[in-house]
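Let us practice reading a record.
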Amino acid sequence: MFLGLDSSTQSLTAIVLDPATAGVVAECRIGFGQDLPQFGSPSGFLPDGEEGEVHANPLMWLAALDLLMDRLRQVCDVSKIKAVAGSGQQHGSVYLNQSFETVIGALDASRDLENQLVGCFSRATSPIWMDTSTGQECKEIAAAAGGDAMVCQISGSVAVERFTGPQIRKFFKRENQAYEGTSSIHLVGSFMASVLVGKSANIDFGDGAGMNLMDLASGDWSDVLLDATAPELRGKLPALASATTVLGVISPYFVKRYGFDPDCKCALFTGDNPASLVGMGATEPGNIVISLGTSDTFFAAMESAKTDLNGYGHVFGNPAGGFMSLICFRNGSLAREALRDELGLDWSAFEASALAVTRDSAGENLMLPFYGPEITPRFDFKRPVVRTVHGADGGLPASLQVRALLEGQFLNMRLHSKWMDVPVRKIRLTGGASQNDGIAGLVADVFQAPVERLVTGNSAALGAAMIAAASQGLEFSTLERDFSISSGPVIHPDRSLASTYERAQNRFAELLRDVMDAGTA
């Protein structure tokens, strides 16, 4: 059996797979707010951060690991687990002093992790992906490295506030003495892997690419970006390696305390986005994942490391080899909920509206579906902008507004993913809104590709378990066939609408350009 762990923003989740039966043996979850209230983090992070700071207490993650393992052994024979791998919320960082490796190499099974590692941190809290406090540091890194285009060309992304490099620079600038006392800087995933294996773990290519520090071309840290970020940084970062690299066997702490096999192997931990690519069965180019959540995301495997010259997309490593890109759209369910409330609909009525309109109206009414600041494209929209083909007086009826917003969201995705130059052969749709047939049908029509919905509720933990299995020689293609299972029938596109949506995309691009050039929306 193979164990996958996912240390996300709000929880720590475990999934155990048995490839022999193609079954999920066990699932466990620790909710940080619910199960560990003593850390004062009801949503998984410390509230009331100043000036955009969002940090978490890394001791909470250790307490969660102990509690999760205790629960897991009650529902699963952990001695049969052959290998473990994991994922961590991408971009978050952990700062450790020189005692860290000594302590994790000699853990006492009679004492919990939290109390043994409490003295190992050179920085008490960990900035996570939600932190937006490093705008100045992003500008400084870009200036020192030769501009945003150069940072993007090297690392796969422009300098981004929530990424790790700018966070490290801020720490160096504001807490220089603590930075000097930092022996190693880990990502959330590599930190958890280090504790599991009892030594400092490598950072995998997928997770490392989300730091604004890695050179995509060489697979090593970029001296240009390291020098632009902080002095002597290379010596504080673990080496990079592929996700299926085996670090060694699990620490004796987990053997003695929870009953793991002493020969259980530990592979690298990756980021939650690369792990989700695996869990969604999309490691081959042409299989696209669209996640409809608070923010919508579009991610896909790529054979080569193409970068987005506009800086909207991000390139990470693909755990199965090669690369992947992720594009985030802030106005996801935020916009869908705003229109729902504006029209006085409940969700069932909103979803019914998506189904009610005939396809004769496809692509007729354009809406820039932005109810506030957007990051793809980067612009502060104040309200949606609507343009109708027939100039309807008095505004559009509710059903047409719903359709125009949804079409606008998917046309925006299609427009801003063209730089990847990846064929869209199949779309795997996930997230709450994905279960609505009308919405799924619109995705199929706009992209002119079949749409599948997946069974899994935690694609990152599932992907991590699949990476654990792949580290022991199983093929990703076989694992994806057995575990990345679609729910319900495939929804096929209406091929007669191909030219309709091609024209609609061109008109959408023109409207978007007009509004952004005017500087108001």
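A brief commentary: The chain has a mean pLDDT of 93.
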